[in-house]
Write a structure and sequence with these properties.
about 900 residues, alpha/beta, 8-stranded mixed beta sheet, elongated
């Protein structure tokens, strides 16, 4: 297996890249720039808006409508054909706008590039444009610089680099010039620096080993380009349904046309052949128009938009509209740890003194022991962090935690620093892993030291024990080391503190010997308080939570156990361990792995795909550049509001409060949105089914077509739209978060929904057929007008039973949804417009169609709706107590 760059000797790295520590010559650099191209990310060409526009016409139902509109245009039905073309055009334009909005992840990634770089060329230091960097260049780094390319360190002086965008870690990585033999993830490659990361401390020099798309950030860009965004469960379900429905409509229309044409040619031949053929075509077209809910796409879009407003109130901003419904279907949440499950703020949670004292400070500063006081003094004074006037925390997160700890103990850190100003210092560096400062405390010059526990313990010859300085014995040392190990097992980050009396002179590193050990402070990035309940709620809702983090495995497992993600029998893997698993092994172990640590962007995508291959709808949270490909691959990517623009652009949703609990709240909204979309679709198709049955019945009976194409378009596009949108505002069903996520392969019309749509459609058809028959007793024209009127009122009033499949409209709160009643009133007003002289002729309503006919149509519609509600009430009682209902039935029988 070939060695990675971080595993090779420095001399080999320089040789392979044909360079030296004196750098390249200008001519060599120019030649390499010409051969390999600039140090920039390349972007694949995107589809034009026109091509995206054409692709919107691939949908099966759209194809059928295009055929119908074209036939009507040929036959002279201009109004109907223009209406259909206008609806299709509007839907296509909206679709293109949404698609173009989603583009931009790579543009944000490009903005992370450094503008310029300090290099050594021709043996001298010079500044060049970062895009002109080439492999083999020697680059100099200082605090505040963006790293302009990937490279291997040649020199470092206390170098710290914030690699959170690539690793997800909240603390800067301490870099070292060393040889690494083992295979390790990016977060542990201490001898490398990576393009786009930021130097937070110290200085360094490195040789460029990769530029442009060959860098780690370039690999992320390639993953973003090649990752295919997933269709949502609703989109997949509507696509499948659309194809089946379109075939059924075409088939039924052709059958009806065939029957009609056969009747014409088998008749006595006395009729007008042309008129009869036109009538046959209009019958077939009427079936197609009646069956296809022309406003469906617009209604779904509107209901999803209403869901985005609800989610915004739950701190979830939706960037891609279909994500609203997808979130409600989620069965696996792959979440980052830092900032999402935790507070993204290192916090001191425990301490230890040599006398065995630990836990939490319970007294005020006035009653502290000398040991406690000295521990706090060192933690604050040997510390470079600060809190600005506006509350901003400045400095290393670990040091910020120490001054926060002092403030919480009612000892303001600024008071200590004003009282004991710094006289001298030995800054932290990665070799010593110590920091020391000199102060005058109570008239005595003291050296205060903090650092890694093992180092401080080994440099201490005495301990502070109950206010007295005594020699450190082997027993003392073992006790301190045991406590340090106990803290480490809890995944706590531990710092040790010591001091010594020191005469006033220039400090030297040799002064950090013969120290007096004072104690330990243990800290961690603690879980958010609300996360405990949120994880429990997710489990109750049938959703599995998986932690994916760039942090160490021990820390990740400790947090996961505490908040309830990691249970007995669960497994944790590092990215390296994951790489060693075959696809089959991963599939077999997937359900048990709840924590992934030290992962790469490729690892994250693999985890998401593994769940998707199991048929699970997966959500993925993240905030860094390294998260972007997985956010795009996931069924729903969730970026943090404080995250990078790259992550936000790749995600479908952004959490403004970076809080896992907000995801669970948004899931509830998402489930409600899907339920409401399903109710709206069921409402539309129940009405359409009623119209189709009425048309087919009229055909079989030899009656006139009960509806004109314009009447059906008016009902589908105008009348039905308002009630369907009103259904999109229904409140959640009572048990919405106690049920398992729905199967993504489940069709829209299954189980109760299919039976409900069928039953309501039959009742609507029965009312319409009876209405046409009654009207035909007066005239054919009155029969058509009665059928049209009854269909409108039946479809409008069925909004009430359509509000819920688990409750009657009374149980759901008869007046609870005021928009439903507003929609019914507005639909009544729209219907009344069709009765106005001059308009009624357009809708084929004769002059002798009176208010008594209208009233009779309303009564028939009301009877159908009452039957829907009564049947639902009986079925709900049977489901609730089948035995009791059975006995009642026996008695009544």
């Amino acid at each position: 297996m070939a060695q990675e760059i971080y595993q090779k000797k420095l001399s080999d790295v320089l040789t392979e890249n044909q360079t030296s520590e004196q750098g390249l010559t200008t001519s060599e650099a120019q030649q390499r720039l010409t051969e390999n191209g600039p140090n920039q990310l390349k972007e694949a060409p995107r589809k034009s808006s026109f091509k995206l526009f054409l692709e919107t016409f691939k949908d099966a139902m759209v194809v059928v409508l295009l055929i119908v509109a074209t036939v009507q245009l040929v036959m002279g039905a201009y109004v109907e054909s223009i209406v259909i073309f206008a609806v299709l055009l509007l839907n296509s334009v909206v679709s293109v706008i949404q698609t173009k909005k989603a583009e931009g992840s790579l543009a944000a990634l490009k903005n992370l590039s450094a503008p310029d770089a300090n290099v050594i060329r021709d043996g001298a230091e010079q500044s060049i444009l970062a895009k002109d960097l080439v492999v083999g260049d020697i680059v100099l780094l200082e605090a505040g610089d963006y790293v302009p390319a990937d490279g291997r360190l040649l020199e470092e002086g206390s170098l710290k680099v914030d690699e959170g965008m690539l690793t997800g870690e909240s603390t800067p990585a301490e870099k070292e010039v060393q040889l690494i033999d083992a295979t390790v993830p990016i977060g542990d490659r201490l001898n490398m620096v990576y393009s786009g990361t930021i130097v937070t401390y110290g200085r360094g020099k490195f040789v460029v080993t990769a530029t442009g798309n060959n860098t780690a950030i370039g690999e992320v860009a390639d993953l973003l380009e090649t990752t295919v965004e997933q269709k949502t469960p609703l989109q997949r379900g509507l696509d499948r349904f659309s194809k089946k429905l379109s075939l059924a409509i075409l088939g039924l229309s052709l059958i009806i046309l065939g029957v009609q044409v056969a009747r014409i040619f088998m008749g006595d031949g006395t009729g007008d052949l042309t008129a009869d053929l036109v009538n046959a075509f209009m019958f077939a077209i009427a079936v197609a128009v009646a069956a296809i809910p022309e406003a469906l796409q617009s209604i779904v879009t509107i209901v999803l938009s209403l869901g985005t407003k609800k989610m915004a109130r739950e701190h979830a901003i939706i960037r891609k509209l279909p994500a609203v419904e997808t979130l409600g279907s989620t069965s696996v949440i792959c979440t980052d740890k830092t900032g999402t499950l935790t507070q993204n703020r290192m916090t001191v949670v425990d301490y230890f003194l040599p006398n065995g004292q630990s836990g939490k400070f319970s007294q005020t500063p006035d009653s502290w022991t000398k040991d406690e006081r000295r521990l706090v003094e060192i933690s604050v004074l040997a510390n470079d962090a600060a809190i600005a006037e506006d509350g901003a925390k400045l400095g290393d997160p670990t040091e910020v935690a120490l001054i926060d700890f002092s403030n919480k103990q009612e000892q303001p850190y600024k008071e200590l620093r004003q009282k004991y100003p710094r006289l001298n210092e030995l800054p932290f560096d990665s070799d010593r892993k110590l920091m020391s400062t000199q102060h005058e405390i109570d008239g005595e010059k003291l050296l205060l030291t903090k650092g890694g526990p093992d180092i401080v313990i080994n440099r201490s010859s005495h301990i502070l024990l109950d206010g007295e300085v005594v020699p450190m014995t082997e027993e003392h040392k073992q006790l301190i080391q045991q406590q340090n190990e106990a803290f480490s097992e809890r995944a706590l980050r531990v710092l040790a503190f010591a001091y010594k009396s020191l005469a006033d002179h220039d400090l030297e590193f040799e002064d950090e010997q013969e120290l007096v050990f004072v104690g330990l402070l243990a800290m961690i990035d603690p879980p958010r308080e609300e996360v405990f309940q949120a994880v429990s709620d997710a489990r109750n809702a049938g959703m599995k939570t998986v932690m994916i983090t760039g942090d160490h495995k021990t820390t990740a497992v400790a947090i996961a156990k505490e908040i309830g993600i990691f249970a007995e029998g669960d497994q944790a893997l590092t990215g390296t361990e994951l790489d060693q698993l075959s696809e089959l092994e991963l599939k077999e172990r997937l359900e048990k792995i709840t924590v992934y640590a030290r992962v790469s962007p490729e690892n994250k995508i693999r985890i998401i795909r593994a769940w998707q291959n199991k048929g699970k709808i997966s959500a993925m949270t993240g905030d860094g550049v390294n998260d972007a490909p997985a956010l795009k691959q996931a069924d729903i990517g969730i970026a943090m509001g404080t995250g990078t623009d790259v992550a936000k652009d790749a995600a479908a949703m952004v959490l403004t409060d970076d809080n896992f609990a907000s995801i669970i709240s948004a899931v509830k909204v998402g489930r409600n949105v899907y339920d409401n979309i399903k109710k709206a679709i069921a409402y539309l198709f129940a009405g359409n089914l009623g119209a189709i049955i009425a048309i087919v019945f009229a055909l079989v009976m030899g009656w006139n077509n009960p509806f004109t194409a314009l009447q059906l378009l008016f009902i589908n596009l105008v009348n039905d739209s308002l009630p369907a949108i009103a259904l999109g505002t229904e409140k959640p069903e009572p048990t919405i978060m106690q049920r398992a996520p729905r199967d993504p392969d489940q069709g829209i019309f299954t189980g109760k929904t299919l039976s409900s749509v069928t039953y309501r459609g039959i009742l609507i058809a029965a009312a319409v057929i009876f209405a046409q028959w009654l009207g035909m007793q007066e005239s054919v024209e009155i029969g058509v007008a009665m059928a049209f009127s009854t269909l409108i009122w039946s479809r409008t009033l069925q909004t009430l039973p359509a509000r819920s499949n688990t409750q009657t409209s009374w149980q759901a709160g008869f007046l609870e949804n005021k928009l439903v009643w507003l929609a019914i009133v507005v639909c009544g007003a729209l219907y009344s417009v069709t009765l106005i002289p001059g308009v009624r002729e357009i809708f084929a309503i004769p002059q002798n169609f009176t208010l008594s006919h209208v009233g009779l149509s309303m009564l028939l519609a009301l009877a159908a709706v009452l039957l829907m509600e009564i049947t639902k009430l009986i079925l709900l009682k049977v489901q609730k107590d089948p035995a009791k209902v059975g006995k009642t039935a026996d008695v009544k029988g």
